[in-house]
Amino acid sequence: MQRPTSSHMAALDHLLRYISGSSGQGILLRGADSLKLTAYSDSDWASCPISRRSVTGYIVLLDKSPISWKSKKQSTVARSSAEAEYRAMAQAAAEITWLVSLLQKLGVSQLKPVTLHCDNQFALHIARNPVFHERTKHIEVDCHFTRDKVMEGLIQLSYLPTHSQLADVLTKILPSHQHWHLLTKLGMFDHHPKLEGGVGDPRVSKVSTQVSYDDVIKVC
């Protein structure tokens, strides 16, 4: 803000063009016969060029509809990509714990175990193994919250390829085709009619033509 450069102006122009072309986008909350929680966690290691702190991102889906998500810079510097991913998993595990408790109070049962998807094999090994080698000694105790929830049976961990990681959209800059692909997977659609020559992406507008408002979940 104090010393803006041309690169900052270009980033601002890019952001405003995206907002202008996506003002009609929204998340469709679909009805479902059975309710199931699924979570995705991811991190972008040392992404901040100044502090070298990583970015945490997670998304929690109720059936196929996103109900909770977060993107935030981590409070400490991670010494490895696995540690950054593990910290992101801990944040997602805490959110899952709260959501399960909330939904149970609302009468929704049989939510356990909740599948937590991660694209880092080493972070999964840390969370699954109660006694791991010395490379994990520098990780704070509160990060092992994920391990406790795995042992309790609340969470089950699952590996998935990076290109299928929905939380990627919250942690890093993606190629346009991957960005729009993940948005459609998250249930994004555009309810504004597209004009010829508009800046919106046609792949998102196609989703809106296939959705009726009868699919919107009824909140009791």
Please explain how this structure is put together.
- The chain is of the alpha/beta class.
- The protein has a domain at 28-173: Nucleotidyltransferase, domain 5, CATH 3.30.420.10.
- It contains 6 helices and 7 strands; from the N terminus they run αββββαβααβαβα.
- The strands form 2 sheets. Strands 4-3-2-5-6 form a 5-stranded mixed sheet. Strands 1-7 form a two-stranded antiparallel sheet.
- α2 packs across α3.
- The chain is flat.
Task: Furnish the topology, listing elements before pairings.
Layout: H1 6-21, E1 25-27, E2 37-44, E3 55-62, E4 65-73, H2 81-105, E5 114-118, H3 121-128, H4 145-152, E6 155-159, H5 176-185, E7 188-190, H6 202-209
Parallel strand pairs: 2-5, 5-6
Antiparallel strand pairs: 1-7, 2-3, 3-4
Structure annotation, total helices: 6
Give the helices and strands as they follow along the chain.
Answer: HEEEEHEHHEHEH
Annotated CATH topology of the domain at 28-173: Nucleotidyltransferase, domain 5
Distance between the termini: 46 Å
The total beta strand count reads 7
Overall geometric form:
flat
User: Average pLDDT, to the nearest integer?
Assistant: 83
Largest sheet: 5 strands, mixed
Query: CATH class of the domain at 28-173, please?
Result: Alpha Beta
SSE-based structural type: alpha/beta
Q: Give the second-level CATH assignment, the architecture of the domain at 28-173.
A: 2-Layer Sandwich
Question: Can you tell me the residue ranges where pLDDT is under 50 for at least 5 consecutive residues?
Answer: 196-200, 205-220
Helix content: 25-40%
CATH superfamily of the domain at 28-173: Ribonuclease H-like superfamily/Ribonuclease H
**Rg:** 19 Å
Query: What topology, given as strand order, has the largest sheet?
Result: 4-3-2-5-6
The proportion of residues in beta strands is 15-25%
